[in-house]
Amino acid sequence: MTIAHVLGFPRIGAQRELKFAVESFWRGDIAEAELTAVGSTLRRRHWQWQKDAGLDLVTTGDFAWYDQMLNTAALLGALPARFGFDARALSLKQYFELARGNAAQPALEMTKWFDTNYHYLVPELDAETRFDGGVDWFFYELEEARSLGHNVKPALIGPLTFLYLAKSKAAGFEKLGLAARIVPAYRRILEKLAAQGVEWVQIDEPILALELDEQWRDAFAPVYRELANLGVKLLLGTYFDSVASHAQLLADLPVAGVHVDLVRAPEQLDALLDVWPQDKVLSAGVIDGRNIWAADLSAKVAQLETASAKLGNRLWVSASSSLLHSPVDLAQEDQLDAELKGWLAFARQKLDEVVVVQCALNEGRAAVAAQLAASDAVAQSRRTSGRIHNPAVGSRVAALTAADATRNSVYPQRAAAQRAWLKLPLLPTTTIGSFPQTQEIRAARAAFKRGELPEAQYVAAMQNEIKLVVARQEALGLDVPVHGEAERNDMVEYFGEQLAGFTFTRFGWVQSYGSRCVKPPVIFGDVSRPRAMTVEWSRYAQSLTARPMKGMLTGPVTILQWSFVRDDQPREQTCLQIALAIRDEVVDLEQAGIKVIQIDEPAFREGLPLKRAAWGRYLEWAGRAFRVSASGVVDTTQIHTHMCYSEFNDILAAIAAMDADVITIETSRSDMELLEAFGTFAYPNEIGPGVYDIHSPRVPPVNEMLRLIAKALEVVPAERLWINPDCGLKTRGWPETEAALGNMLAATREARAAISEGRKLVVEAAAGHAHAAGACGCH
Question: pTM to 2 decimals?
Answer without folding.
Answer: 0.87
